[in-house]
Amino acid sequence: MEPFKVHILGCGSALPTLKHYPSAQVVEVRGKLFLVDCGEGTQLQLRRTRLRFTKISAVFISHLHGDHCFGLIGMISTFALLGRTAKLTVYGPISLGLILQHQMLTFCRDLDFEVQFIPVDTTLQQVIYEDRSLTVETIPLDHRLPCCGYLFREKPTLPHIRRDVADFYQVPVSQYYNIKAGHDWTTPDGEVVPASKLTLPAEPARSYAYCSDTRYMPRLHECLKGVSTLYHESTYGEDNLQLAEKYYHSTARQAAQVAHDAGVRQLLLGHYSSRYEDEQVLLNEAKTVFPNSILTSELQVFKV
User: Fold this and answer.
1) What values do phi and psi take at 270, rounded to 5?
2) How many Å apart are CA 147 and CA 62, to the nearest integer?
3) I want to staple 9 with a disulfide (CB 3.0 to 4.6 A). Which of 45, 154, 158, 265 is the partner?
4) Quick check: 88 and 80 in contact, CB under 8 A?
C-alpha cells in the first residue's frame, strides 16, 4: 500500500512554549508532500525530519492567526536560498493573498520559482485541489476569524489481479487493466471468466481531516463521515469550558464527540493550551467518549 502519513511538526496553541511548536503538519500521500499550516519554527522542524521538504508542492493555511501562518514567508525565503525552481501553491483565506503579496515584495523579490496564491471560501465545503490520486476539500469551521479545515481524500484504486487465477486461464498481461476496470475475460474456447473471479478488491480509500481551530460544532461530523483519521483541536479540557466558548476553541471531550459521531477510525488530539503541563488529562477526557484517541507531539508520524 502506498504511504499515507501525517508528520506532526507543531501541535501547540498560540502561546509559544519550550515544549510545543505552533501548528504545522506535513501530509504525505503517495510520494507527494503537502504542508498544512505554517506556524513559527516550521522550517526548523522540517529540517529535523527526514523529509525532502523542498518537495512540498502546496501549503494549506487554515486561518490568519499567527500561530498558523507566521512561518510561511520565512519558509518561502529559505526555498529561494536552496535554489528551488518548482512552483509553490498556497491555499488560504482570501485576506492572506494581500498579506503574502506585501511580504514577498519586501522580503522575497526576484524568486526563481512561482508562488501562486489560491483563495478559498472558508464557508463552503468544496474540492480545491485534485490530482490523479487525491482530492483536498475545505471544511468550514467556527472560529473568531474566517477559518477552515482540510480533508485529504485518496481516490479509490483499481482491484488487484489474482495472478494464480489469471495464469490458470492464460490471461495475457496486456488485458490486466481491462479486467481491473471490470471487463470479463473470454478464453479461446469461449468460456467467459468474470472479472470478479480474476481480481481481489482494492484496499479501501483512506482519508485524513485536519480541524483546527474551531469551537464545538454539533453538526461538524456530517462533513467527516467515515474519515480514516481525524486531527481535531483540543485546546482545553472541560475544566476550561468557558474559555473554550469565549475564544472559539474546543475541549478534548468535544473533539472526541465529533470523532465518535463521524465514525472515524482514530482521533489525533492537538493545539494544546500552554496551561496544561501534562496533556494526559486531555487524553483521559477524550477517551471517555472515543477510546481510540491519541495525543500528538512534535516529530511523531501517524499512518492514516
Assistant:
1) -170, -170
2) 5
3) 45
4) no
CA separation, residue 185 to residues 86, 131, 160, 161, 171 (Å): 44, 31, 15, 12, 8
Contact assessment for residue 287 and residue 279, using Cβ atoms and an 8 Å cutoff: no
Q: How many helices (H) and strands (E) would you count in the chain?
A: 9, 18
Q: Give the pairing type, strands 160-161 and 199-200.
A: antiparallel
Write out the catalytic residue numbers.
Answer: 67
Look up residue 256 and give its three cell numbers: 472526541
Q: What residues are paired with 12 via a beta bridge? A: 272
**237-245: which pairs have CB atoms within 8 A and are 24 or more residues apart?**
237/276, 237/281, 237/282, 237/285, 238/285, 240/273, 240/275, 243/273, 244/215, 244/216, 245/215
Question: Are the C-beta atoms of residues 67 and 99 closer than 8 Å to each other?
Answer: no
Comparing C-alpha atoms, which of 39, 58, 90, 73 is closest to residue 212?
39
Task: Give CA separation, 210 vs 1, 55, 138, in Å.
Answer: 22, 21, 10
Residuewise pLDDT in 10s, the chain (304 residues): 789 999 999 999 998 899 999 999 999 999 999 999 999 999 999 999 989 888 999 999 999 999 999 999 999 999 999 999 999 999 999 999 999 999 999 999 999 999 999 999 999 999 999 999 999 999 999 999 999 999 999 999 889 999 999 988 899 999 999 988 899 989 888 899 999 998 998 889 999 999 999 999 999 999 999 999 999 999 999 999 999 999 999 999 999 999 999 999 999 999 999 999 999 999 999 999 999 999 999 999 999 9
The verdict on pTM exceeding 0.90 is yes
